[in-house]
Amino acid sequence: MRRIFWLTLSASAWLALSGQSAFAHDPVFSIGPHVLYKGGIETAIETARDKSGNEKESELGLEIVYGITGDWAAGIEVPFAFKDEGTESSNGLSDIQVFTKYRFWREDSLGLQESAAVMLAVNAENGDEKTDPPLGNGATDIITGLTYGYEGLKWYRWASARYVLPGENAAGLQLGNKWLLDFVSGWRPTPPEYTKPDTVWLLELNGEFTDKAELNNNSLANSGGTEWFVSPGIFWTMRNFAIKSGIQIPIASDLNGIQDESDYRFKATFEWHL
Amino acid sequence: MKHIIFCISTFVLLWSSISFAAGTQYDLRVDGLACPFCAYGIEKKFIRTEGVESVDIDLKNGVVIVKTSEGKTFKEDQLKEVINEAGFTMHSMVQKPL
């Protein structure tokens, strides 16, 4: 049973961070409509850490994205996870993710871009779920999302919704479906100049609504629930290099049964366009 | 001696004006430019194009300045396509010889 608990906990945390590939001028913990120029290649190194009670999880991810058109991009993320349960720890390759984003609407004016995009991501089941703690949930998961963004010279705002549909693994465990809702504001204190460093401060509100997990079609009492986070962050860019970072701080939690509430989640990304 | 210096000076002036004035400058008014990192795509797209010598971007005024070498010219539709593939919208353009 302890193993089931760990599987639901660690996989839920990973899924919460899923479907939000680097894309520098998107928020840190949610998605935005930013894509990549046609023929462009974006590479990123991403590190994430989350802590809930005694459980800690860190992840290092390598990501590459290709601009298929000026409004459509696709990529892959290969994560390496380090998990520590207190008495047990494990590390290794976690579930690889492939993703694509299509910007279906764009309204450009002087110094302003408003746009909307849809995204689709698939988490493979390659992460070893037999380690203790497990490195994957042993199932293929699908993530879909819809996002709107307003990017001006001084102010930014985004809104997005994602739906996570986890698969069922060989042991009959299926994590609960999850809605992720995000609202983000951004502020650039000094006007941007091309070739000069540029800083934008962010404040995100992230909500997560998770159904109970099921084991062989039996609902698990100690799973699922609702969490809200407020997440200050920053992105700093210079020409084709970007650094993006933020921390998720829980502000409200209503988890089912006995579960550790999230203490914090941290994420940082270093990204460059080739 | 004065004649020789005059002839050489005239030749150098003529040569330099022929060599450096044959390119073209395109001032493009581009909509949607809000961040330098995103605008890098425009520079990258143009620099990959043969005959483009330099690209400069003025974010505040939404202007992209493209300078080409001798003999390299663009049609308006070509420029619009490059800007669109970079993820922005070309509003208008001014073409002038260098």
3D structure, described in words:
The complex is a heterodimer of chains A (274) and B (98). In chain A, strand 7 (141-152) and strand 8 (155-165) form a beta hairpin. Chain A has a single domain (2-273), classed as Porin, CATH 2.40.160. With 274 residues, chain A is mainly beta. Chain A has one helix spanning 2-16; strands at residues 41-52, 55-69, 72-84, 89-93, 97-109, 112-123, 141-152, 155-165, 173-174, 178-187, 198-210, 214-215, 218-219, 225-238, 241-255, 262-273. Chain A has one helix and 16 strands. The longest helix of chain A has 15 residues, at 2-16. In chain A, 5% of the residues lie in helices and 59% in strands. Chain A is globular. In chain A, the strands form two sheets. In chain A, strands 1-2-3-5-6-7-8-10-11-14-15-16 form a twelve-stranded antiparallel β-barrel. Chain A has a three-stranded antiparallel β-sheet with strand order 9-12-13, with no helix packed on it. Chain B is an alpha+beta fold and 98 residues long. Chain B has three helices and four strands, in the order αβαββαβ. Chain B has a four-stranded antiparallel β-sheet, with helices on one face. In chain B, strand 2 (52-58) and strand 3 form a beta hairpin. The longest helix of chain B has 19 residues, at 2-20. Chain B is elongated. Classes of the chains: A mainly beta (274), B alpha+beta (98). Chain A binds chain B through residues 24-25, 34-40, 67, 69-71, 103, 106, 108-113, 151-153, 191-196, 198, 200, 237-240, 242, 273, and chain B through 31-42, 44-45, 48, 56-62, 84-89, 91.
